[in-house]
Design brief:
Blueprint lengths: L1 E2 L8 E2 L5 H20 L1 H7 L23 H12 L4 H7 L3 H20 L5 E5 L14 E4 L5 E3 L6 E3 H12 L6 H11 L6 H9 L6 E2 L10 E2 L2 H17 L2
Antiparallel strand pairs: 1-2, 3-4, 5-6, 7-8
C-alpha cells in the first residue's frame, strides 16, 4: 500500500491514484475528445483580425491572416497530451497525481472556451466527521457542474457528486412540494434554475412522478413532486443537451 500521488490526497492505495481520484480523472478525460473536436471554432472566433492600419506580422494589409489565439492552440495541444484512460494512468504512471492536477486546469479552461463559463454549483456543507466526538466539517462544497467529484477546501475530503446528490434527494423525498416550491427549493439548495415551462414539459413527458396532496369526490388532488426526482431529471436532461443525445 502507498499514498495517492495527487497533491493533498493522502488516501492509501495499491495504485498511483486512489479510487476517488481515478473517478475524477476519468470524468475529466471523458470530455477531452469532444473538446478537441470543437475547440477549433472558438479558436477562430477569438483570433484577432488585423485592420488596414495595423502593423506587424500581417503587413497591415486588409484581409491579412488573423493573429491566431496561441493560448487556445496551446491548450488544444495540451489536451491531446492527456492519457486516454484514467485507470491505466493510475496503474502505470508514478506521476499520475500531476496528470490529474493538469487535467483539472486544462479541461476547465477548454470547457469555458468551448461551452462558455458556468457558475460553480454549491452542494451544501461537507459534513465529514473530523474527530471521534462527531464534530462535522462545515466547509461549503462547490464545483463545476460537469465535475464528478468535489473536494472540501476546509478539510480536504473528496466527495463524489453522485453521492452528494443521492443524499440531497434522500433528504428531499421526505417532503413533497408544489412545482413552484420545488423550483424555489432547488434554486436555494443546489443553485439549479428550472424554468416553469421545462418543468411542465417534463410532467407531460411522464418523467416526473407525483403524489396527491388530497383526494376527494369533488375533484382531483393537487399534484406534489419530490425535489430529488426533479433534480435527477434536470441532471439527465442537461446531459442530453450537452452531448446531443
Amino acid at each position: 500500500m502507498t499514498s495517492c500521488t495527487t497533491e493533498d490526497c493522502h488516501r492509501l492505495t495499491t495504485l498511483y491514484l486512489c479510487t476517488s481520484c481515478i473517478v475524477e480523472l476519468d470524468s475529466l478525460l471523458e470530455d477531452v475528445g469532444a473538446l478537441v473536436r470543437l475547440i477549433d471554432g472558438p479558436i477562430a472566433r477569438t483570433s484577432v483580425t488585423r485592420n488596414a492600419a495595423s502593423s506587424g506580422g500581417g503587413g497591415g494589409h486588409p484581409g491579412s491572416k488573423p493573429a491566431i489565439n496561441l493560448d487556445a492552440m496551446l491548450l488544444k495541444a495540451w489536451l491531446c497530451q492527456l492519457p486516454a484512460r484514467a485507470h491505466a494512468e493510475a496503474m502505470d504512471n508514478p506521476k499520475a497525481g500531476e496528470t490529474l492536477y493538469m487535467a483539472r486546469i486544462w479541461v476547465k479552461q477548454a470547457r469555458d472556451l468551448v461551452w462558455g463559463p458556468e457558475d460553480h454549483r454549491v452542494y451544501g456543507e461537507c459534513g465529514e466527521e473530523l474527530d471521534p466526538s462527531g464534530t462535522q466539517c462545515d466547509g461549503q462544497l462547490t464545483a463545476h457542474p460537469d465535475d464528478l467529484t468535489v473536494k472540501c477546501k476546509s478539510c480536504g475530503t473528496v466527495h463524489e457528486v453522485r453521492d452528494i446528490l443521492a443524499r440531497l434527494r434522500e433528504r428531499a423525498r421526505g417532503k413533497p412540494m408544489s412545482p413552484r416550491e420545488v423550483r424555489e427549493y432547488l434554486q436555494q439548495k443546489a443553485r439549479v434554475s428550472i424554468l416553469k415551462k421545462d418543468f411542465e414539459n417534463w410532467v407531460q413527458l411522464g418523467r416526473l412522478r407525483y403524489v396527491l396532496d388530497h383526494v376527494s369526490t369533488i375533484g382531483t388532488g393537487r399534484r406534489l413532486y419530490f425535489p430529488g426526482d426533479v433534480l435527477a431529471v434536470f441532471e439527465d436532461m442537461r446531459g442530453r443537451r450537452r452531448y446531443g443525445r
